[in-house]
Design goal:
This protein is mainly α. It is built from seven helices and six strands. It has a two-stranded antiparallel ribbon with strand order 1-4. Helix 2 (25-44) packs antiparallel against helix 7 and helix 6 runs antiparallel to helix 7 (208-234).
Amino acid sequence: MPNGSLEGWLHRDTTDEAEQKHLNLHQRVTILLDVAYALDYLHCHGHAPIVHYDVKPSNVLLDADMVAHVGDFGLARILAEESSVLQQSTSSMGLGGTIGYAAPEYGAGNTVSTYGDIYSYGILVLETVTGKRPINSKFREGLSLREYVELGLCERTMEVVDSRLQLNLENRISADPRSCKTRIDSLVLLLRLGLSCSLEVPSSRMPTHVIIKELHAIRESLEGMQNMKLENAVM
């Protein structure tokens, strides 16, 4: 894809000559929405549910218009038609997916389900907002990305947000405080969505249609502030 993967944008090599380029908040929300639509299609709109089994930033590819596409179906599973949402796999491949993104239930019986994709998606959301991989030096002492975000939401929300998004907000505070509040509220909602998708109990995770609804609301809120800003500039 012309714009590589989400992984490449979230974790750019400092030697990259285009290192100054980054994803703004609206772009990140739109990419997450694209991925949610892809998972909704795989899980709910085919002849049988398809589990991707390896949802992570390097498998989210960006085209010339920065539209996100889910790729790499090497581990995908098709669940039996008309089966329950949770389906036992007959695979002998062992733990599916990638460490840090694989659902915890995959480590105890290799149970394949659409719930597993939702867990991986939740971690992807948290990584997209924080700019930190689930396997990070900060998390070596028993702290996970989820726990890191949970602590942040209780005490210091902006400290867990990607530094590039923080800088963008700091540059806007004096000029447009109302817009900043909308962006901070959106970041909190995104973090909470990521946590809801990556809950320990599979059936408690947020379904794709609710994810899509919430992301649409967040994006519309951001676009509403942008449109208001443009209208004020014209007046």
